[in-house]
Amino acid sequence: DGGITQSPKYLFRKEGQNVTLSCEQNLNHDAMYWYRQDPGQGLRLIYYSQIVNDFQKGDIAEGYSVSREKKESFPLTVTSAQKNPTAFYLCASSPTENSPLHFGNGTRLTVT
Amino acid sequence: AQSVTQLGSHVSVSEGALVLLRCNYSSSVPPYLFWYVQYPNQGLQLLLKYTSAATLVKGINGFEAEFKKSETSFHLTKPSAHMSDAAEYFCAVSDNFGNEKLTFGTGTRLTIIP
Fold first, then answer.
1. B53 near B39, Cβ under 8 Å?
2. To the nearest whole angstrom, how far is the Cα of A25 from the nearest Cα of chain B?
3. Is the pLDDT of residue B97 over 70?
4. Rounded to an integer, what distance in angstroms lies between the CA atom of residue A59 and that of residue A61?
5. Which among B41, B46, B106 is the nearest to A41, CB-wise?
6. Average of per-residue pLDDT across B19-34
7. End-to-end CA distance of chain A
8. Dmax of chain A from CA atoms?
9. Which end of chain A is more exposed for a tag (fewer CB within 10 A), N or C?
């Protein structure tokens, strides 16, 4: 079955450490996205990529970095510069930038 | 710039009763509107979308929403609630059809009372 796989489901890190969240899709979608979800808030866009080897900052990119070396992979690194990294992170993809989003099941990151 | 407001962060309805989740939007241009559903510890799933065709949009799982320009609303309804409808629902708006412009509401958690 095609879909988006995010791993791991739960991730724990100490403050000051960088951590990379994995996102893989086998839907052959061109566009991929990273969102952050906090309790009582809507989803906020961190980064997006419409094509391999290209990506753009979203609304809250500070403290995060991404890469898009392969069409199916869009990993997100949460750096030590991110002041409040504890959150639920959702990866999504779409066939084009104008198609509805398909979401992975998320990674819950806890930084202490 | 667009924005979306979901009235009521928590809504409880009895099984078999009408479900009504409210969404009001602000947009300087004709909007594209979406409803997504999120089950616990999962990603979001598209319920339905409005893209300037019919004002009454039917989605999956028996849900529908009506676009009312005069009220700037896009409320989600279902005639008869089922226990499996318990989830969080997000309304989203975009002023074009690009996902990078999508603005999500803060969500409404729906509880179904047996």
1. no
2. 14
3. no
4. 6
5. B106
6. 91
7. 36
8. 38
9. N
Chain B residues within 8 A of A101 when measuring between CB atoms: 36, 44, 46, 99, 102
Q: What is the mean pLDDT of residues B12-22?
A: 98
Residue with tokens 């086998």: A26
**Residue A42 scores a pLDDT above 80:** yes
Q: For the CA atoms of B88, A50, B52, B66, what is the dihedral angle to 10 degrees?
A: 0
Q: Check CB contact under 8 Å for A100 and B106.
A: no
Tokens of B108: 């409404």
Determine the average pLDDT of the residues in A68-96: 95
Q: Which of B36, B41, B100 sits opposite A58 (nearest CB)?
A: B100
- Cα distances from B56 to residues A78, B49, B50, B91, B103, in angstroms, run 41, 10, 8, 15, 21
**A97 lies within 8 A of chain B by CB:** yes
Residue A3 pLDDT grade (very low, low, confident, very high; cuts 50, 70, 90): very high
- At B63 the pLDDT is 97
Q: Tell the residue number behind the tokens 């009763």, with chain if given.
A: B17
Report strand pairing: B19-21 vs A54-57. unpaired
